[in-house]
Write a structure and sequence with these properties.
Layout lengths: L11 E2 L19 H17 L20 E7 L1 H4 L4 H17 L4 E5 L32 H13 L2 H7 L29 E7 L9 E5 L2 E5 L10 E4 L6 E3 L8 E5 L15 E5 L3 H6 L6 E5 L2 H6 L9 E11 H10 L8 E5 L6 H6 L2 H5 L11 E4 L11 H11 L1 H7 L4
Parallel strand pairs: 1-9, 2-3, 2-13, 3-11, 8-10, 12-13, 12-14
Antiparallel strand pairs: 4-7, 4-9, 5-6, 7-8, 9-10
């Protein structure tokens, strides 16, 4: 069976350094007249009744100061193999994605714990031939690690970019039915933010000549470099008009944009805008925005650490197990004597059906180093739900429990910019 290629679904382009900026208003009032009229009538009803307005979400993310710290989690893709149907596999991925978004997780690592063996496809109405198509076929049975990484990457991507970055694939057949993550970078066309994600598109001119493009009844001119060198790139950022950036970036590349001003320009939905490409971490580091999560795959538990993309690696790590110390004993100490150090990059690792012990046994690097007990890999070995009523806590449940239990610690101990 041909193995799927590495998940190189989204390319980022950015250039450094960048000046510090102030927070921007995501909930712009620059909407159409119809939307404005609707909001006015809705607010009038709220005033008359003197009750909270529940017609739209009110718990909207508000950026503060920039933050340097990151929160990462790691979990095995084998949990997908434990789901018995395609719909259940997708739903499980959606539950995890929702937890990542709610608790502002910056990175998720899907590792192989050696337990994700293909099931009997025929018993689930799925032919062996259909599951042996390699990268073009459904991977929920044949490669659960790939499947989970694929869906998490898709769900994190702003909706207006998905059709440009993700080709049609059987893994994504039911992805449209999953709950929306609705993260700060999932902007609507009428919402303004100084940051915005987009995808580079084909430049209609490659000869270095002046370009005249039709747009309704108006014509616009823009210049490209001579000798075939294109000095600007066009970016589809979910607005009616492409955004121009002063850089040559290949088409179909995901880019994080930074506009010159935090306040929306006049008629920004249709105006010709210019921006600069910035690092995907810039919204977080400069303005405190939660800008989604990065999804990466690791071939083993040890590679979760050795392939860390952050300089210096993870400086505070937690392993979860029912055999660990109560998490409450650590979080209580945080507010009293500050025994836990401040961190820049925190990692929380969750086990699969058989726990992290099987991941250690399946890792040749750890076996070669003489590591046989998973608690030796972490700064803290914790039990996230002491006195549980069920014999088992599913991994998707553990993610919610663990992130909720560590929430105060993350906010209190994370190093700000």
């Amino acid at each position: 069976m041909a193995a799927p290629p590495p998940l190189n679904l989204i390319n980022y382009a950015y250039f450094l350094p960048f000046p510090k900026l102030t927070a921007c208003n995501v909930n712009s009032k620059f909407t159409s007249e119809k939307d404005t009229d609707f909001k006015r009538k809705r607010d009038e009803v709220q005033t008359k009744d003197n009750h909270p307005n529940t017609s739209k979400p009110t718990a909207i993310f508000e950026p503060g100061q920039g933050r340097a710290y990151t929160l990462s989690i790691a979990l095995p893709g084998s949990i997908i193999a434990n789901a018995q149907s395609q719909d259940l596999k997708a739903t499980l991925a959606g539950q995890i994605a929702r937890a990542l978004a709610v608790f502002c997780v910056d990175e998720v690592v899907i590792f192989d714990d050696g337990q994700g063996k293909p099931l009997n496809h025929h018993s689930h109405g799925q032919s062996h031939q259909q599951n042996s198509q390699g990268d073009s076929g459904y991977s929920g049975y044949s490669n659960p690690n790939y499947f989970l990484t694929h869906l998490l990457s898709y769900l994190e991507t702003p909706p207006h970019l998905r059709m440009h970055l993700f080709p049609l694939h059987p893994d994504l057949r039911t992805a449209g039915t999953l709950p929306s993550l609705d993260m700060p970078h999932h902007l609507r066309a009428h919402e303004w933010c100084q940051y915005r994600d987009g995808v580079t598109i084909e430049d209609p001119d490659r000869n270095g000549n002046e370009v005249v493009e039709e747009q309704g009844k108006k014509k616009k001119k823009r210049k490209s470099g001579g000798n075939g060198e294109v000095k600007i790139s066009l970016v589809n950022a979910g607005l009616k008009t492409p955004v121009s950036i002063s850089a040559s970036i290949p088409p179909h590349t995901r880019v994080t944009l930074k506009f010159p001003a935090s306040t929306p320009p006049k008629d920004f939905q249709t105006a010709e805008l210019t921006a600069e490409a910035v690092a995907p971490s810039a919204p977080r580091e400069e303005a405190g925005y939660y800008w989604g999560y990065a999804a990466r795959a690791a071939s083993s538990l040890s590679n979760v650490f050795t392939e860390c993309t952050y300089d210096g690696g993870y400086d505070l790590t937690f392993g979860t197990s029912e055999r660990g110390v109560p998490l409450s004993s650590l979080t209580a100490a945080t507010s009293k004597d500050s025994s836990l150090p401040e961190f820049k990059h925190m990692l929380v690792v969750f086990g699969g059906v058989a726990g992290l012990e099987v991941a250690v046994k399946a890792d040749p690097e750890l076996i070669g180093m003489g590591v046989t007990q998973p608690e030796k890999l972490f700064d803290h070995w914790v039990n996230i739900c002491q006195g549980q009523g069920s014999r088992t806590i599913r991994t998707e449940e553990a993610v919610w429990l663990g992130l909720m239990g560590l929430r105060d610690l993350v906010l209190d101990r994370g190093i700000k910019s």
